[in-house]
């Protein structure tokens, strides 16, 4: 017997890891850094969340409570914390909304993982259990979801309003939500009904007025004035529009060289040739019946000179110059015309047709509007107004989130309640499921279920309510079978959230849980950081 007891310590020594301390320290450091990032954005969750003022190195100031924007602007150095920044970017590209939610869920999961690790559960066991729990969570959410028809405009507007209600510009949600819905529905292609390309919705920002003056324009808007040189026209009815990518200016030599002119006759001849060259071009343009020119910005030489503008004005052709290269595709798709790269290819069939092109004064500047386009492509333009640049930028970010929400609903047509209802229901059902599982798995799934309560807890906390009382009441309601009971932050009590029109797309919730779980599993698996110089 004595021989057996003596042999035991030696065998356990050879089987155990010697240096586990460092690995535990690295894991703890990673989890703490990632949780610090999650705590930074936690206060901006929900309709009563706080806003962040971000001051950049070049003196620019941004006021926002959009999780993706806040994290994007933060200079995070710790590699594990950077993963949370990437996590919010992934949610932004996958669903467009719920960027704060996904980071807060990840932070809560990491907190639970730290407890499990201290209790001696192996990271791989935790990781596998989280994966199972997230798959089960997606099934539970899908079972809770309410199907939606794309023709049901009211439900789409409710969902967009829910997204806008937590933004700085929430008081304008009654204007921006229908605007977002109409703009997405106008670019949906019947041939591919579940695909929406948000690049077909152009957002133009113009200082002056208030957010109330924001409008949806069926056509094109250029944030620049028409060329006024030599009294050119600024309004054109029955417009025939050409998008040109060549320069209406005297040609230059292909190589860098100078021409020496010795006497005046040669100089006159050069000027005369230049005039004839430009006149020849303008005659070809006029011959096709074109009366509006959109000229792409040129980097090689001036796209137009004073002389060419003078002749274009005489020919009664309206000129809008310095059109950005990246806008050309959108413009040609909208006008249903072709860009013209050379004067020799200038033909009438390449022109776009519109009822009216006019210059309009807005605030302290001018814009050019193109309306009544014939055979218009599936695009639309939103003109955002605001009293200062901060408000305009935030309105654009909020509108982008609302557009993404509507896009989610077009691609996956299910709605789900908001206000912390899905998270509490998940927590309840996963908690019940964990009792059926055996061993460590059940323990880990229970921790996952507890972590999801962070969303209703934070919503209540940010609204200035008593979070413990609210979450306990919410749990009680859900256990009685009210699966759509959620926190109504305006009334400060628990109500049926679907009846209050607080709804969100199913895709936002499912992608938040799957992405957060994936990120946490990845952080758990890291046991060392190697710096390469």
Automatic annotation (TrEMBL):
Its main location: cytoplasm. The keyword Oxidoreductase does not apply. It is found in: Cytoplasm. InterPro entries: Chap_CCT_delta, Chaperone_TCP-1, Chaperonin_TCP-1_CS, Cpn60/GroEL/TCP-1, GroEL-like_apical_dom_sf, GROEL-like_equatorial_sf, TCP-1-like_intermed_sf, TCP-1_chaperonin. GO terms for molecular function: ATP binding; ATP hydrolysis activity; ATP-dependent protein folding chaperone; unfolded protein binding. Pfam families: Cpn60_TCP1. Keywords: ATP-binding, Chaperone, Cytoplasm, Nucleotide-binding. Gene3D superfamilies: GroEL, GroEL-like equatorial domain, TCP-1-like chaperonin intermediate domain. Residues 1-21 are annotated as: Disordered. The keyword tRNA processing does not apply. Residues 12-21 have a biased composition (Basic and acidic residues). One of its GO terms (cellular component) is cytoplasm. It comes from the Eukaryota. PROSITE patterns: TCP1_1, TCP1_3. Molecular chaperone; assists the folding of proteins upon ATP hydrolysis. Known to play a role, in vitro, in the folding of actin and tubulin. Belongs to the TCP-1 chaperonin family. This is T-complex protein 1 subunit delta.
């Amino acid at each position: 017997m004595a021989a057996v007891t003596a042999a035991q310590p030696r065998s356990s020594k050879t089987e155990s890891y010697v240096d586990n301390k460092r690995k535990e320290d690295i894991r703890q450091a990673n989890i703490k850094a990632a949780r610090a990032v999650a705590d930074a954005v936690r206060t901006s969750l929900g309709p009563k969340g706080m806003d962040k003022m971000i001051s950049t190195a070049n003196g620019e100031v941004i006021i926002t409570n959009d999780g993706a924007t806040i994290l994007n602007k933060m200079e995070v150095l710790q590699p594990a914390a950077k993963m949370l920044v990437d996590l919010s970017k992934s949610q932004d590209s996958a669903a467009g909304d719920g960027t704060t939610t996904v980071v807060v869920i990840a932070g809560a999961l990491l907190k639970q993982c730290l407890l499990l690790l201290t209790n001696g559960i192996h990271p791989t066991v935790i990781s596998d259990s989280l994966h199972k729990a997230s798959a089960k969570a997606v099934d539970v959410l899908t079972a809770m979801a309410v199907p939606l028809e794309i023709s049901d405009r009211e439900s789409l507007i409710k969902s967009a309003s829910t997204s806008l209600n937590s933004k700085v510009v929430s008081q304008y949600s009654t204007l921006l939500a229908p605007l977002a819905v109409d703009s997405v529905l106008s670019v949906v292609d019947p041939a591919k009904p579940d695909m929406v390309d948000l690049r077909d919705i152009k957002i133009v920002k113009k200082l002056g007025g208030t957010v109330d003056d924001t409008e949806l324009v069926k056509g094109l808007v250029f944030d620049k004035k028409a060329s006024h040189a030599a009294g050119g026209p600024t309004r054109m009815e029955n417009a025939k529009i050409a998008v040109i990518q060549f320069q209406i200016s005297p040609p230059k030599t292909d190589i860098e060289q100078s021409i020496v002119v010795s006497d005046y006759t040669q100089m006159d001849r050069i000027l005369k040739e230049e005039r004839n060259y430009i006149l020849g071009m303008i005659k070809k343009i006029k011959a096709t019946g074109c009366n509006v020119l959109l000229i792409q910005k040129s980097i090689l030489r001036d796209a137009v000179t004073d002389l060419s503008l003078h002749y274009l004005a005489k020919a009664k052709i309206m000129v809008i110059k310095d059109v950005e290269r990246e806008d050309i595709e959108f413009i040609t798709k909208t006008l249903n015309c072709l860009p013209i790269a050379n004067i020799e290819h200038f033909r009438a069939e390449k022109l776009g047709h519109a009822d009216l092109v006019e210059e309009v004064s807005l605030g302290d500047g001018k814009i050019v509007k193109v309306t009544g386009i014939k055979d218009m492509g599936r695009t639309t333009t939103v003109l955002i107004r605001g009293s200062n640049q901060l408000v305009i930028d935030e309105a654009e970010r909020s509108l982008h989130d609302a557009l993404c929400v509507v896009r989610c609903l077009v691609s996956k047509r299910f709605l789900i309640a908001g206000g912390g209802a899905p998270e509490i229901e998940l927590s309840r059902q996963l908690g019940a499921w964990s009792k059926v599982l055996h061993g460590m798995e059940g323990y880990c799934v229970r921790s996952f279920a507890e972590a999801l309560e962070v969303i209703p807890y934070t919503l209540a906390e940010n609204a200035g309510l008593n979070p413990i009382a609210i979450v306990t009441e919410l749990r009680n309601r859900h256990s009685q079978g009210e699966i759509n009971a959620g926190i109504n932050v305006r009334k400060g009590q628990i109500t049926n959230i679907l009846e209050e029109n607080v709804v969100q797309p199913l895709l936002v919730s499912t992608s938040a849980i799957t992405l957060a779980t994936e990120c946490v599993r990845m952080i758990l698996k890291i046991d060392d950081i190697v710096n390469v110089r």
